[in-house]
Amino acid sequence: MADRKYWLGFDLGGTKMLAQVYDEKWKIIGRERKRTKPGSGADNGLDRVVETTQKAIEEAGITCSELRGIGIGCPGPVDMDKGILLQPPNLGWDTVNVKERLEKTFTCPVAVLNDVDAGTYAEYRQGAAVDARCVLAVFCGTGIGGGCVYQGEILRGAGSSCVEIGHVQVMSNGPRCGCGQRGCLESVASRLAIASQCARAAYHGDAPYLLEKTGTDLANIRSGALASAVKEGDKGVKDVIREAARYIGIAIAGVVNVMSPDVVILGGGMVEAMPDLFLDRVSASATKRAMPAFRDKFKVRLSKLGDEAGVLGAALWAEHVLGVQ
Amino acid sequence: MADRKYWLGFDLGGTKMLAQVYDEKWKIIGRERKRTKPGSGADNGLDRVVETTQKAIEEAGITCSELRGIGIGCPGPVDMDKGILLQPPNLGWDTVNVKERLEKTFTCPVAVLNDVDAGTYAEYRQGAAVDARCVLAVFCGTGIGGGCVYQGEILRGAGSSCVEIGHVQVMSNGPRCGCGQRGCLESVASRLAIASQCARAAYHGDAPYLLEKTGTDLANIRSGALASAVKEGDKGVKDVIREAARYIGIAIAGVVNVMSPDVVILGGGMVEAMPDLFLDRVSASATKRAMPAFRDKFKVRLSKLGDEAGVLGAALWAEHVLGVQ
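The joint structure predicted for all components is written out below.
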């Protein structure tokens, strides 16, 4: 048997995919990135995953016989035991056995997990919540995802990953959510929800900077533009974001009252663009609404690993579940 | 060393306390019940716990040297590792080390846990959710408590027990809750919340049976009277209960979306008085609001053990954590 000492992490996203090879000290020694091209089917998609993986291995100057294993984080529900990705909505793929395909190609064990779980696990191992007993992570971007590491293990649902904090109700009879319900956190505090309210504010004249910079088309109102608008004094934008952060805090308080985590991590594109604004407001709102017994027991912190969390977490998780085999 | 083969379960409630001795097949061989007399302090209270335990041991015809261990479920937050009961509001006690006191008196190991956790654990071991991977239990009475057994272990919070589902928000700007927040599940669906709405219905003439039977004093409107009123056709009462059950389902759906349990158990005095009404309505409401991926993965079931769950669960938990020592 070859000297297997490297781990490969893979972050399969809705728009890009990223493979990184890590040495024994978790230093990146090889790396490849491709666009995902969703919508072209699971088989074509997995072909691109294989190519990207191969390129990263080549770039690292190793062969796959030197890999101890691969961890791959996927954007959708995952059957972790079987390594199956279950109809990921962002990719438009059918259910597909990712583990089987990659193990056959690379002749090393493969661990498949949800991408948000991977990011949460990375923060638990090397980020903002190292060794915490119970970590809840909330990632705010186009949607809002959540993950939990409880006593060193990813919290698992009945059939797949869980912690869908984006679909906890925070407003009775609130706006219609993509999931079909009303008033889900995602329907009031995702980037899309924020952008739509800011577009309205711009239209009404409450966000002159944003209006000039992006116009009122939601597709152009990205987190960077929102952050600039806040900085430039667009009151309408700031108010919308503060209100969104308040709702994120309410949803977190609901989970805190049920699970009483030690650390709550905030990450994702929206938070990275305006870290202090989110941290302050979310933290204040969550603390205010959490039960007194749990209130002093948790800390809200910013993600430390940012974009690296997903790919690193996938590799670390592979080590965790495959390392002793 | 004596032949230690019996377990003792203890259910310390706000109004009564109950000790039961179990043989190796979990048959009850001794039993004692006392009123709790809360408000007379932790020391006096623990004296009564000791007396009750002694009586149950005597009634079983054994000595404490034959006990393998004692499990005691307590109405409040508990530090399970240290065996400390933390300022239980229902008893008006200061923080007290229950484990130390009982171990000294009975010279056997003692496990201390929250009473709702004990009930949940009993349902997991011998009730309506035997061997389920993840069980969420919701007990609806004067308040609303929750517990979770995840992969065979009680889900633990940062400092104590958790799963305070009664304090998950289900109504934005809803009624003021005892915890200081607004719109908590307990503020709209506990027996007290239901009774106050039914008293109003009775006053307005929508609940003639209830009005005649109990009048409009909340203290008299117990679950039995509410069940009779529903049976006798008090539309006002039925509507209030259906609405409360709908909110219980909404809170459950929120937890389902975060934890994706396999089984959700409904218990407590209100549910026991009107099991079918609660089961149907809660189940429909929770299913409707849960995310599609989780919707077919959980079942709502009635508690099987009723009043016995707390005391049995305490003994079973003692066996689980002390049995291998």
